[in-house]
Amino acid sequence: MPGVEEERSTSKDVAARLIQLRQALGLTAAQLCRRTGIKPNAWSNYEKAVNRISVDEAAKVRRALGVTLDWIYHGDLSGVRSDVAEKLQAAERSPQIVRRRA
After folding, report:
1. CATH superfamily name and code, 4-93
2. What's the half-sphere exposure (Cβ side, CA atoms, 13 Å) at 42?
3. pLDDT the model gives residue 92
4. Using the 8-state DSSP alphabet, how is residue 79 labeled?
5. What are the structural domain ranges in the chain?
6. Per-residue pLDDT tens for 80-92?
7. Does pLDDT of 102 surpass 60?
8. DSSP single-letter state for residue 101
9. What is the model's pTM?
10. I want to staple 11 with a disulfide (CB 3.0 to 4.6 A). Which of 19, 31, 49, 98 is the partner?
11. Cα separation of 87 and 4, whole Å?
12. What phi-psi label fits residue 37: left (phi over 0), alpha (psi between -120 and 50 degrees) or beta?
């Protein structure tokens, strides 16, 4: 029986969190890619859920932006840097944030 954690871990859920993160931090995709060292075409595919972000690439996001792998893959905010967590929570409530969940 799938748990809540599994239900929030689909490729589309991960993609939605990546979009939420970028928008919550006020970054364009190009700015995020420069900060993380991720190639723009790869980032675009992660946001579109064409490809799921790898652990190595997610670790780049973690180091550069203050989130955790648990948040990226499961939506668990508990270890996220507090200033980033506040922005993510505010973004979650914002109607301006694009969500790509089906």
Report:
1. lambda repressor-like DNA-binding domains (1.10.260.40)
2. 15
3. 85
4. T
5. 4-93
6. 999 999 999 998 8
7. no
8. -
9. 0.85
10. 49
11. 23
12. left
